[in-house]
Amino acid sequence: MDETVKPHVQILDLRKNIRDQFQNFNKKEFDLIICTEIIEHLEAQFEDIFLNNMMHFVTRNLVFSWSPEWDPHRGTERQEHWNPRPYPYAINKLVKNYGLTFCEEKTSSLKKLLSGNSRIAYEFNHWIKNIMVSEMV
Fold first, then answer.
1. Fewer CB within 10 Å: N-end or C-end of the chain?
2. What is the pLDDT of residue 60?
3. Could you tell me how far CA 85 lies from the centroid of its own chain?
4. Which of 79, 77, 85, 78 minimizes the C-alpha distance to 40?
5. How far, in Å, CA of 124 to CA of 99, rounded?
6. How far apart are CA 36 and CA 93, in angstroms?
7. In 3-state terms, what secondary structure has residue 95?
8. Which residue blocks in 28-77 are alpha helix, DSSP H?
């Protein structure tokens, strides 16, 4: 990590309530939260805690991905995905539990934009197919 960035970084355990990890927790709000390639790496029992933590900060837009696939090391010491979920599950969870609206047009536009860059499309195709854009209602 660049030394100029370090003073602005707070390391958190996303399996625990973030309020308990800040000495002087003040609610901060952001118009845009980008959260990709994270939740499938947490065990299923931490899913709701993680989502509650993230949604505490969202005021307008969320760009989110949740892989539906187990990683190739499933069942070994090198396993990385512990909670893959299908695309409809992720959308429904965000809509029903957090009042978000899935933005199909914005999601399609973002996927098209990312796919148009050959390096991104090659390196991150798995990410592109799982990305979704949602808005607060």
1. N
2. 93
3. 12
4. 85
5. 29
6. 16
7. helix
8. 47-55
- Both tokens assigned to 73: 């090391």
Residue pair 83/100 in contact by the 8 Å Cβ criterion: no
Indicate the DSSP class of residue 57: T
Taking the C-alpha atoms of residue 77 and residue 52, their distance in angstroms, rounded to an integer, is: 29
87-98 and 47-55 helices, crossing angle to 10°:
60
How far is residue 137's CA from residue 135's CA, in Å, rounded to a whole number?
6
**Alpha helices (H) along the chain:** 47-55, 87-98, 104-115, 118-123, 125-130
Residue that the structure tokens 């009042």 belong to: 99
Beta bridge partners of 62: 33, 134
Please report the pLDDT score of residue 24 as a whole number.
Answer: 65
* Amino acid at position 66, single letter: W
Residue 84 predicted with pLDDT over 90: yes
Largest CA distance in the chain: 44
Q: What is the pLDDT of residues 7-30, one digit of tens each?
A: 888 788 889 988 787 766 676 778
Q: Pick from 88, 79, 84: which is nearest to 126 by CA?
A: 84
C-alpha span between 2 and 8 (Å, rounded): 11
